[in-house]
Amino acid sequence: MYDERELSADVRERLAITRELATKFSERAAGYDETGAFPHENIRDLQAVGYVAWTVPREYGGLEISLSEMLMHQEQLARGDGSTALAIGWHVGMILNLRSTGAFPDELFAAVCETVVQDGALINSCASEPATAVRAAGVSRRRPRCQSMEDIVSAGARRLARCRLL
C-alpha cells in the first residue's frame, strides 16, 4: 500500500489520469466481456495520454517511471477493466524490463523507444512454458540476440503466435 499524501505531485497527477481512464474503462468493460472483443478503444485512450511511454527512459522521451509507480497505475486501470490492464501491462512491463536489463543493444532499444514515444507503438514478447508448446513442437528454446528492428520481427524460434498492429 501507499499513502498518496506522501507521493510527489507529478505521481499524483498521473494517478488522476489513470483513475479517470479506469472510470471510462469500467463503463465499457461489460460490453467487452460480453462480446469477447479486444478493448481497442481503451488502448487508444492509453496511447492518447502517453501512458505507453511512461516507462520509456527520459533520454528517449519517456517519463522513466519506477516499477512501484507503474504498479500503482496498473492497479487503477485494473479497477476499471482487468483485460485492458493486463494487455497494456505486457507492454509497459516489457519496456521497463528492457530498460532495466539492457537486453537490447542501445541502438535497437533507442529505435523501439522512439516508435513508442512518437507513434504510440506497443511491444510484447512471445514465450511458452518449456514443458508444453515448445517441446511439443520440437523447437529450440535458445533466443538469438537481436541487433536490428528486422531481427525483432524475424528472430527466434517458431512459435504458434499471431500479431496484429493496433
Task: Provide keyphrases for this structure.
mainly alpha
- Net shape: globular
Distance between the termini: 33 Å
Beta-strand content bin: under 5%
Order of helices and strands: HHHHHHH
Note poorly predicted spans. 133-143, 154-166
Number of helices: 7
Structural class assignment: mainly alpha
Provide an overview of this structure.
- It contains seven helices and no strands.
- The protein is 59% helix and 0% strand.
- The longest helix has 27 residues, at 9-35.
- It is mainly alpha-helical.
How does the SSE layout of this entry go?
Elements: H1 9-35, H2 40-48, H3 67-80, H4 82-101, H5 106-119, H6 130-137, H7 149-154
Task: Offer a concise description of the structure.
This protein is mostly helical and 166 residues long. The chain contains 7 helices and no strands.
